[in-house]
Amino acid sequence: MSRCRSWSPVQRYGLAAYRRYSGSGGYPNIPLSSPLPGVPSPTFASVDGLEKSETRITTLENGLRVASQNKFGQFCTVGILVNSGSRHETKYPSGIAHFLEKLAFSVSIAFSNSPILLHVFLCRDTTMYAISAEVKGLDTVVSLLSDAVLQPRLLDEEIEMTQMAVRFELEDLNMRPDPEPLLTEMIHAAAYRGNTVGLPRFCPGDNVDKIDQAVLHGYLRSYYCPQRMVLAGVGIEHEQLVKCARRYLLNTRPVWGEATPTDVDLSVAQYTGGIVKMEKDMSDVSLGPTPIPELAHIMIGLESCSFLEDDFIPFAVLNMMMGGGGSFSAGGPGKGMFTRLYLNVLNRHHWMYNATAYHHSYEDSGLLCIHASADPRQLREMVEIITREFIQMAGTPGEMELERAKTQLKSMLMMNLESRPVVFEDVGRQVLSTGKRKLPHELCALISESGSPEHIASPLRCCAASRRWRHWETSRSCPPSNTSRLPCPARMGACRAPTACSGRPRGPPLPRTPTTIYVHKP
């Protein structure tokens, strides 16, 4: 024991443990900003030439656009985005896009021990086919995408299996405790009654047996053409992606034959407004011994703007400012605690289960919505509270509140773009809609420069001011469906015809604000 006491600290703890760079021993009085003596200087990578985050775009001879974003890593995400969705089913039975989503990648193809991940995503105006795989398998990935998009087999047994899958999904949708998908479907049906983005996203039950191979080929012939497609990739070299695109997508003959699209729907979204109500008996649906609470869900919305307009960024900031969440958690400890719906609604009314703001934006219109949930006996008071929040949106926000919303929006943007599939979707959607891509630092600059508090509130005041155009609708019918950009009164929702191409006078007046009411009844 006495021998151990005579050891020096170096002998007792070892040289590595004893060396203290910031203490009194080892290297005393050396600030943290100065290099340590005897330690080699670090060598950092340098960026030469063009910016490495630049998105490169090439248009092939057949009109197909190829866009790539280089990103360091062993894996890549490559896919095809098509300007096609449920809003383009005006001349076809509703549900074709839903069928195509289920039929995608239905044929199994062998791969040479390369791990892949298939993605199929459908929204109201875009269909996305994507694959995540190793970079060395890019040739195989583009070949698979070409087969899935341009040469689907659509066999009778595949269509029959898809019909069963669609019926099961519709049954599951009506029994799901989470009402958000159904509420989103209902708010679009109320806001754009019978036209464009108001058409059903899911296949109606009556149309399941009406969709066959001939109907699918007719739809694909009209919308699945190279001019309406973008091949996007993240994590690969642009020249390599263009080479694969020329090999598999330039001269490939589609299974439905070569034909010039003639039945393309160019209808512009016509905001109608309306109310959709649904009462459901959830007494026989439960996730466990505890029954689902009896709740009334409402979603109230106003027409906003398209993502091509200058007001898109202010509306995004406004949506972030409203925020919200559930009564138990607003997205995590401290997240969303200073948003208006959390401070003014969830904090003050203990009986509110949920209050969340959403913003849906398309190429010709948009919706700013608030979803709220409470006991059915509190339905009237809940509607009054949410309506009051809409009215207060038109007021001028505080400087601190506005800066906090801008910072949260930029933080959410940068956090989401850390994911490779999200970057792929961002590249594909921007190139498909605008032909170019705004980089993250450009979007952050637009958010910072989105204006003063008065400028943030002005878009909503403009929507409310569209009521003064009601005299315009009494003497005019609906504009033609091929109008590329409508006059201001029609864009603000003054035209209330049931469809964009009917040309008939409007029907009975409908409420200006789309409202969805959905009640759980145990």
UniProtKB/TrEMBL annotation:
This is Peptidase, mitochondrial processing subunit alpha. It comes from Gadus morhua (Atlantic cod). Residues 65-205 form the Peptidase M16 N-terminal domain. InterPro entries: Metalloenz_LuxS/M16, MPP/UQCRC_Complex, Pept_M16_N, Peptidase_M16_C. SUPFAM superfamilies: LuxS/MPP-like metallohydrolase. Substrate recognition and binding subunit of the essential mitochondrial processing protease (MPP), which cleaves the mitochondrial sequence off newly imported precursors proteins. The lineage of its organism: Eukaryota, Metazoa, Chordata, Craniata, Vertebrata. Belongs to the peptidase M16 family. It holds the Pfam family Peptidase_M16. Residues 211-409 form the Peptidase M16 C-terminal domain. GO terms for molecular function: metal ion binding. One of its GO terms (biological process) is protein processing involved in protein targeting to mitochondrion.
